[in-house]
Design a protein that fits this description.
Layout (H helix, E strand, L loop, with lengths): L2 E5 L5 H12 L3 E5 L9 E2 L4 E7 L7 H9 E2 L5 E8 L6 H10 L7 E6 L15 H23 L4 E2 L13 H21 L5 E3 L8 H5 L5 E4 L2 E4 L10 H5 L5 E3 L22 H5 L5
Parallel strand pairs: 1-2, 1-4, 3-5, 4-6, 6-7, 7-8
Antiparallel strand pairs: 9-12, 10-11
The structure holds flavin mononucleotide and iron/sulfur cluster (2 copies).
Length: about 280
């Protein structure tokens, strides 16, 4: 009874979770979602299908949405998902279930894991120190033991996400409209995806790492400087922002959202190398 664990990861949190889960589940393989997105139809082979990814703007990343639309999951008898996130509520499992229902499948189980935040735009952002990462990971390890038991025994477990974490300290009505606005922005991103969202500043050392880790291949080095090509969709993975060794990649301000990346630090998972991220492209 094989298990396929499909994953998408910008800075290694979801990759870490996918790897740790693979160690626990017999006869399981890891498959990067990005390596499959060029196909018109993505044929799965596992009897059990797992999907591991980060929360992006309260929902599933663009790449995961595309994967689900293209996936032919006839092989599967059981589907589960794990979202890794920073600090807000997550609304994406319903969307996943809707996409799966079109293929006569259900999201049988789903789970959320709190991990370090890889989005350094906010004024109050603090890049996590080793102690923060270790604390979060000991909880992740405990929860993975539970997930292993549920997945191996094909139990139904749909974790409810009822509390607001620290992201939205406003009142219920405000939260409701803010949530709708953020989700609408994410839908829009699926079509225009970060057209003029990034730039590199004078700290750029022309190393080319941003091009290597760019999961959508939006970044191309031209005259030794990175260029974010306008006609290529961005998956908003923030690998370019976080893996640039000189913190030269900046996020531009967008309407109503000022970016503080110039003064903030960066984060990527300590076990996720540039190679680990770029290998997702399968090139
Ligand atoms: C564009 C973007 C949007 C994000 N939005 C959210 C969010 O709405 N809620 C949240 O809790 N975390 C959010 N995060 C943080 C990530 O979900 C979190 O750090 C995740 O574990 C990163 O996983 P990865 O390293 O596998 O990419 C966001 C990160 C990015 C890059
Ligand atoms: S990773 Fe940073 S330093 Fe290297 S080329 Fe890209 S922007 Fe420049
Ligand atoms: S441009 Fe940056 S955020 Fe967009 S896909 Fe490439 S690496 Fe990820």
């Amino acid at each position: 009874m094989s298990t396929e664990i499909y994953y998408f990861s910008g800075t290694g949190n979801s990759l870490y979770v996918a790897r740790e889960l693979q160690k626990r589940i017999p006869d399981s393989t890891l498959i990067p979602i990005i390596s499959l997105l060029h196909k018109d139809i993505i044929q799965t082979n596992g009897k059990t299908i797992g999907i591991v990814f980060p929360v992006h703007a309260l929902t599933i990343p663009i790449a995961v949405s595309r994967f689900l639309k293209k996936a032919d999951m006839k092989s599967s008898k059981y589907v589960f998902a794990i979202a890794t996130r920073g600090h807000t509520i997550f609304r994406g499992f319903k969307k996943m279930d809707k996409l799966l229902k079109k293929k006569n499948k259900r999201l049988d189980s789903h789970f959320i894991l709190n991990m370090s935040v890889n989005d350094p735009r906010d004024k109050q952002y603090k890049s996590p120190v080793e102690d923060d990462i270790l604390k979060l990971e000991s909880v992740v390890q405990e929860k993975l033991d539970l997930i292993e038991n549920i997945v191996v025994n094909k139990k139904i477990s749909r974790e409810k996400d009822t509390e607001y974490l620290t992201g939205f300290p406003y009142n219920a009505v405000f939260n409701y409209f803010l949530e709708k606005l953020v989700l609408f922005g994410m839908t829009l991103s699926e079509y225009i995806g970060g057209v003029n969202y990034f730039c590199s500043d004078s700290k750029c050392t022309e190393c080319g790492i941003c091009e290597k880790v760019c999961l959508s291949q939006k970044i191309k080095m031209k005259d030794k400087k990175p260029v974010w090509q306008k006609d290529v969709l961005c998956y908003m993975c923030y690998a370019c922002v976080n893996y640039c060794p000189s913190q030269s990649v900046q996020i531009n301000d967008i309407p109503f959202v000022k970016s503080y990346t110039r003064q903030n630090g960066r984060y990527y998972h300590p076990y996720a190398t540039v190679k680990d991220i770029s290998n997702q492209k399968g090139m």
